[in-house]
């Protein structure tokens, strides 16, 4: 089975969001708008090094971006990739609703 670029992006997002620590990091970044790994580590029971690794995976999935500001790296959430994944999930849910409605109509005819 071939994976389209759109599905590769969805796969990366869903894989990244499968981990509760990464979800907590993304929630914290959304709430703050921007933060360093050290600031994020202060609020979570995870080492700074682990936070950096998790942020790297979130970055690979397109969910966060980063910029160096002096000696510090600042991370911020990116919504475009998450929006694309939500759009895919919404389209999938809509397709299932259409299928279920067709089954219901067929069952009611009998």
From TrEMBL:
Q: Lineage of this protein's species?
A: Bacteria, Bacillati, Actinomycetota, Actinomycetes, Pseudonocardiales
Q: Which Pfam families match?
A: HTH_20
Which SUPFAM superfamilies does the entry mention?
Winged helix' DNA-binding domain
Which InterPro entries does this UniProt record tie to the protein? ArsR-like_HTH, HTH_ArsR_DNA-bd_dom, HTH_MetalResp_TranReg, WH-like_DNA-bd_sf, WH_DNA-bd_sf
Q: What is this protein called?
A: DNA-binding transcriptional regulator, ArsR family
- Superkingdom of the source? Bacteria
Family annotation (CDD domains): HTH_ARSR
Q: Which UniProt keywords apply?
A: DNA-binding, Transcription, Transcription regulation
Molecular function (GO) terms listed?
DNA binding; DNA-binding transcription factor activity
Q: Does the keyword Mitochondrion apply?
A: no
């Amino acid at each position: 089975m071939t994976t389209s670029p759109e599905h590769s992006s969805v796969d990366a997002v869903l894989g990244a969001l499968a981990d509760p620590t990464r979800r907590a990091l993304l929630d914290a970044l959304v709430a703050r708008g921007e933060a360093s790994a050290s600031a994020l580590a202060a609020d979570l029971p995870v080492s700074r090094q682990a936070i950096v690794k998790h942020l790297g995976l979130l970055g690979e999935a397109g969910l966060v971006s980063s910029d160096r500001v002096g000696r510090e790296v600042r991370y911020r959430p990116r919504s475009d990739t998450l929006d694309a994944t939500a759009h895919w999930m919404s389209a999938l849910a809509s397709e299932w609703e259409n299928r279920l409605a067709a089954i219901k109509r067929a069952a009611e005819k009998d």
